From TrEMBL:
Pfam families: Rhomboid
GO MF entries: serine-type endopeptidase activity
Listed name of the protein: Rhomboid-type serine protease
InterPro entries on file: Peptidase_S54_rhomboid-like, Peptidase_S54_rhomboid_dom, Rhomboid-like_sf
Highest taxon listed in the record's lineage: Eukaryota
UniProt membrane topology term: Multi-pass membrane protein
Bias-annotated ranges (Basic and acidic residues): 23-49
Classification lineage: Eukaryota, Fungi, Dikarya, Basidiomycota, Agaricomycotina
Main location: membrane
Sequence ranges assigned to domain Peptidase S54 rhomboid in this UniProt record: 223-360
Location in the cell: Membrane
Ranges for region Disordered: 1-62, 75-98
Amino acid sequence: MASQYMPVRTNDLPQDETFDPIHIPEKSKAHEQHHNPYSDDERGYDHYGEPSYTKSADDSSLVENAAKVGRSNYQDMDYAEPPQPPPPAEKASPFARFLGGGQSSLQQRIDMKRRGVGRQRYPYLVWLLTAAMCAVFIYELIANKNAQGSVLSFKPVVNYMLGPSSTTLINIGARFPPCMKRIDDVPPTMPIACLNNTANPATEICTIEDICGFGGFHGKDPDQWFRFITPIFLHAGIIHLLLNMLAQLSVSAQVEREMGSAGFFIVYFAAGIFGNVLGANFALVGRPSLGASGAIFGTVAVAWVDLFAHWKYHFRPGRKLAFMTVELIIGVAVGFIPFVDNFAHLGGFVMALFVGTIFYPVISVSRRHKIIMTTFRVLAIPVAIILFVVLTRNFYTSDPYAACEGCRYLSCFPTASNNRCRGTGLTMTSSSP
């Protein structure tokens, strides 16, 4: 019977191979992808498979509270309790909210102050005022072209600010005391160069009442009181406008962001109007004055209030104080230029110190600081009112020169061209003072 077993071929049996210690057998790509260098390949033992690597008494809470995909639960390790949101601000009175309180917590207000973040993001009122002043200046140039045939005044005297003639500026609304009250040295019937005059000496002669415009005077005496306000929107020339708008869009804009538009409106116009009141009292009566400088100086004064009220919250306050001092000195020096009035600068600055103290949102971290600020605010209110009333009354009822003969030199540098700052400062033979 045939055998049930097949013969075994020797070629099918595994052959002994010579051991080569340098030779490393090739491994499959699948093996390389799944190979764990920390596991025992011979026994298939994975050290990470032990429970001690995944669960222990120390990190059991971390594993059990592990984050879902795309989330993070790190806070569970570091905090016994989840972080709490800041407490809501206490409800404040309407006036306190107007001053900046009650909108956020004290710590939030401090953080915002340190970061330079104000009550509102955009200075809407500054933008509106800047657009209005640019539009009014275009009107000034058109008025001068209609009167003299050119948008800029070059005859008989050049306006170095690159703008209209002085008679055109007076006619449009510059501060000019002879148009506001009766001045014996400059009566309404006094002859003066007409708007269209370009000759020197003047060949076209008009009266003060003609130059003042706005329909003349409604009685025997000048009565154009609105010239305390209109000069804020007027500028003597292109250079004057650019300098003021640069300051307004930087310093004034930041003050509006921090105060809010309502408080800024009060400070801006209180400073601008009072600056013209002070200038009408003590500057040369025959020199027209105009510009937003007094109002802008008022916003600079508010920046001083902010610096001293929040000294420890400002970055390098000493350096900032030095810079602001230099800025103030330069502004006063500019006040000696024709058409620009230092009294408007100084008056706006002083008035804004009081009004800014009243309306600027000050952060008080202690009861003592709050009492001090409240005291300053209470005292500032009557002082601001008294200054307005006394100086306005003094302008209409008294001779300011009699009270302070040397004050004129604060806004007039004596030269031969201005008669050493003596007299009224008005001449009939030129189109600029």
